[in-house]
Every structure is written in C-alpha cells, then in structure tokens.
Amino acid sequence: MLTRRLLRVKAFKVLFSNMAQESPSLDNMKKELRFSCDKTQELYWFLLSICKSLVNVARERIEAGKRKFKATQEEVNPNYRFVNNSFVQLLSQDEEMAKFCRKRGLVWTDYDYVVKRIFRSISASDYYKEYMAAPENSFERDCDLFVDIFSNEFEDNEELAGIIEERSIYWLDDITFVLDEIIRNIGTIRSTQRNVTPVQKKEDIQYALTLLEESFLRYQEYSALIGENIVNWDIDRLVSTDRTIIIMGITEAVVFETIPVKVTINEYVEISKYFGTPNSRIFVNGILDTIILKKLNEGEILKKGRGLKDNRSNN
User: Fold this and answer.
1) Tens-place pLDDT, residues 104-138
2) Is the dihedral of CA 277, 282, 287, 292 positive or negative?
3) By the 8 A CB rule, do 175 and 43 touch?
4) What pLDDT shows up at residue 39?
5) Of 14, 157, 158, 165, which one has the fewest beta carbons inside 10 Å?
6) 61 Cβ neighbours under 8 A, 6+ residues apart
7) Among the listed residues 52, 57, 122, the one whose alpha carbon sits nearest the alpha carbon of residue 89
C-alpha cells in the first residue's frame, strides 16, 4: 500500500524530529515509524467508509422530502440511483472493512455536519447530475461516480482537513497519497467487482526500518562528510532538514544495492522541495551527486542487478 517515496518521507520525519532531541532512542524511532505506517492504513479505511455515510444522508433527504405536506413531484417520486449505488453496497458487505473500522473507531457519526456539506457539494456538481440522469445503471458507472467524488471533494476540503488533523497528526500529510490509492483501488474494484484490501508489505516496512536505522547510525559520520564537501560554508549553518535529507540519500545509496543511484538522488531532491528551503533542491542535488560519485569511484557503493552498473547521476 505504501509507496517507497511515502516510506522515505515517513522515515525522514521520524529521523529529523528525533535527532533534535538530546538522547534519541532508535527503538522509539522504529516504533514511531511502524505506528505512522499503521495510521496510513487507518486513514484509508476512514475515508473510504464515508461512502456509506454519504448514501445515508441521501436516503434521509429522500425520506424527509416524502414526508412533506406539500411535497413536489420529484420528492414524491425520488431518484434512488445514488441511494442504491452498487459500489457502496459492495463496501457495506465487506465484514473485514466493517470490523476494522469498528475496532479503530473509524466512524463518521460525530461528523455528520461535514458529511452533509460534502453531499450538498456532490449533489450540486455536474458529474453527479449526469450520473443521476443517465438512462442506464451499471456497476462500472457506480464506481466511476465515486472516482469523481474522491477526485473532487476531499483534498482541498478545509473542514475535512480539520477532522483529519484532530484525529491524528500522522494523517494530514498522508491524505493526498491515500486519496490516490483509493482512486486506484476503485479502478480495480470496477473490473473485479471485489473490494480491495490494502496490504502493508513486510519488505516495504523493513525497507523503511532499515533506512531509518542505518541513517541514524551513520548520522554523525555522514554529517561530517557533508561538511568536508561544502565549499566556503560552515556545516553549522546548514539547514537541518537538508542535512537529514542528504544523510538519508547517502545511506540509501550505500546500503540498498538494488536501488539505482539516479533513483535515490531524484527521490531525495523531490523530498527536499517539500521540506527544505527554496534553494534546497539545488543544494541537495549537488552535494548528493558529489558524495555519491566519490563513493562509487572508491568502491564504497556497489550495485547489483541488470542495468545498475552505471549509476552516475545525470542531474
């Protein structure tokens, strides 16, 4: 479920925050990283479970309209297409999903005001009106509607962001990734008509734990190495986020023999765009390229696998 980039970001955040402490504990850092990864899966199920809540809001609106003394023709003969959405029915039948959400308290009952506002936004949209007016029903069309909903209604929703931040400090930075994952999995559900259970692969979690541990153990050594390769610049003036990013990049290049150097440099340059200064991208790219090239030439970095022999960066 977790991409390597997100795992790198999670490991970076744990390392950066803990190295600012007087006596960082590697065991505590590993626990924090595992916890952060687990929280990402929680966010996935929490966001996906809103589908049923949205349908419940639509059903309540229909029932309220039918009870009106002077109901309109549309209220007397409502359109049940959204209420009967077969994608949501499939989710509702998933006992594993329901059990996970109940156990973790991933429910929307306390946030019904937000669910109602999201539904109002959905029902006013062109994609919803087109869906409701379509001449035929299909499972594929029902899935496509929720692709539109997750693509349009959540990422920039301030109220939703408030809920996510309130629920977990780990969720806020993961929302874009999780929304993308949900949209991809709806595509899979569309073709298989079976719900997708996101799985945290053991090898991915182990990659992140190893990256964190090795970066921590090499932190002082590689910090000094960075200082040796900075021209006319005091190491103490180095932005601490840039230092941590570069240390992790060197560590990954040395420790993980099957990850191409180009990939490593590009990934940490991308991370520096979000967590560094406006000049971090250029600085991180230059220092990583210099140090990694030296280690390649000295034989300290060895790569295994087809196409990994020539790993010099073109950045």
Assistant:
1) 999 999 999 999 999 999 999 999 999 999 999 99
2) positive
3) yes
4) 95
5) 158
6) none
7) 52
Tokens of 120: 């109002």
User: By the 8 A CB rule, do 10 and 208 touch?
Assistant: yes
Q: Which two tokens stand for residue 280?
A: 């971090």
What's the rounded Cα separation, in Å, for the pair 173 and 171?
6
At 166, which amino acid appears?
A: E
Task: Find where tokens 């993308």 sit.
Answer: 180
Beta-carbon contacts of 218 under 8 Å, excluding residues fewer than 6 positions away, are 247, 250, 251
Among 293, 285, 244, smallest CA distance to 267 is for 285
Count other C-beta atoms under 10 Å from residue 245's C-beta.
27
The pTM of the full predicted model, rounded to 2 decimals, is: 0.85
Return the ∠ at Cα 96 (arms to 91 and 63), rounded to 5°. Answer: 35
Each residue's pLDDT tens digit, 200-250:
899 999 999 999 999 999 999 999 999 899 876 556 557 789 999 999 999
Angle of helix 95-104 relative to helix 26-48, nearest 10 degrees, comes to 120
